[in-house]
Amino acid sequence: MVHRQGNRPLLTWPLIILSLLSLVSATRVSPFDFRVRPELHSDRSPEPQGPQSYAASESAWPSFREAPVFRNGRRCAFVNRTGNDTCDPNSVHIAMTLDVEYLRGSIAAIFSILKHTACPENVIFHFFAANRDEELRFLVCSIFPFLRFKVYHFDEALVNSRISPSVRPALDHPLNYARSYMSDILEPCIQRVIYLDSDLIVVDDIVKLWGTKLGPHAIGAPEYCHTNMTKYFTDAFWANRTLSRIFDGKKPCYFNTGVMVMDMTKWRIANYRAEIEHWMGVQSRTRIYELGSLPPFLLVFGGLVEPIDHRWNQHGLGGDNLEGKCRSLHPGPVSLLHWSGKGKPWIRIDQKKTCPVDSLWVPYDLLLSPLSYQ
Ligand SMILES: *[C@@H]1O[C@H](CO)[C@@H](O)[C@H](O)[C@H]1NC(C)=O
Ligand SMILES: *[C@@H]1O[C@H](CO)[C@@H](O)[C@H](O)[C@H]1NC(C)=O
Ligand SMILES: *[C@@H]1O[C@H](CO)[C@@H](O)[C@H](O)[C@H]1NC(C)=O
Ligand SMILES: *[C@@H]1O[C@H](CO)[C@@H](O)[C@H](O)[C@H]1NC(C)=O
């Protein structure tokens, strides 16, 4: 039933109706879908590569609510947003990875950071994506229309050949290694960056963490000196003095690489990326550790980390790496909750197998439940 409308070509209306129908059937419709889809369609990325990616079907994209606008409080440092704000010394730089699997976690993390900082407009996010970068950019833009962020393409080929299989396949994802390449990818004027995993929420002002003094060190992180370092490396490592003497004269402590304050200038000068790659090369010849991207960091920085208050990484909430059992909070104040380990709150919620601590993540979940639209 098509009527001619003025001078418009006859086909316009059927086409619009068809494309609307395909949107309705292919996606869980939300207001945001209608804004974003046309651009997605006109700028479709090549088929995603690798088994980790969702299938080419666009219906795999979940729908999210749009976050409210967050504005700076009165006492925030002035950042000139019409100029080159990436290089503004008052900007706060946060780096995270962005991929389809952890998307819901990343969105919750961004939301939590904005919600709790007094100066949300001074925060710039730097996202590393390996696939469908443009689509992810549109998605972030649609959820946080006011957000200052950049999406950088992380070329997985940089690390693919260096990755040795670990105990948990998720740990082997090339994007996990993006944190080692930030100094090469970010603009040279960025001197400091906070690296954050996607399975965490921040419940305090990130500007406090940003202000951490790093002393002579290139990175700062909460350290856990009671853990026995022996278990992070294999017997072959400890037996080989050429390798294990890396720790001679140091007091290495375990730290989690999911929350790091990083001095990019010191990092570039010392070329830590090359050191990390060196250890990945050793691992590919002789198995010296079992976990993924963490042990090379322990090898390079163990004993050379500026300790940060433990409140900034309440880690392990995802349980252990093999079973993902429920964990409770450690005692003490909390500024950041981290579901490191196998269990992720959004997956446990979908499976209706939540742990008590997951209720702390729920308020930051911006996923638009399909049920709420039916
Ligand atoms: C902000 O930066 C722009 C472009 O560099 C410049 O023209 C403008 O004067 C600056 N504004 C302030 C208030 O500094
Ligand atoms: C901002 O300035 C820095 C150095 O001053 C430069 O490297 C960078 O490319 C500039 N970025 C933009 C978007 O102009
Ligand atoms: C660490 O563990 C190893 C074996 O698991 C043990 O031999 C060593 O004594 C432990 N070190 C400390 C300081 O507890
Ligand atoms: C110890 O490690 C070094 C460096 O990887 C290697 O060249 C050497 O062959 C190893 N020694 C033994 C006894 O395995």
Automatic annotation (TrEMBL):
GO molecular function: glycosyltransferase activity
Classification via SUPFAM superfamilies: Nucleotide-diphospho-sugar transferases
Gene Ontology cellular component annotations, sorted alphabetically: Golgi apparatus
EC main group: transferase
Protein keywords: Glycoprotein, Glycosyltransferase, Membrane, Signal, Signal-anchor, Transferase, Transmembrane, Transmembrane helix
Region (Disordered), start-end ranges: 40-59
Bilayer disposition of the protein: Single-pass type II membrane protein
Pathway(s): Glycan metabolism; pectin biosynthesis
InterPro entries to which the protein is assigned, alphabetical: Glyco_trans_8, Glycosyltrans_8_dom-fam, Nucleotide-diphossugar_trans
Main location: membrane
Signal peptide feature range: 1-26
The EC number(s) this enzyme carries: 2.4.1.-
Location relative to the cell: Endomembrane system
Family (UniProt): Belongs to the glycosyltransferase 8 family.
This protein's name: Hexosyltransferase
Species this chain originates from: Physcomitrium patens
Gene this chain is encoded by: LOC112282948
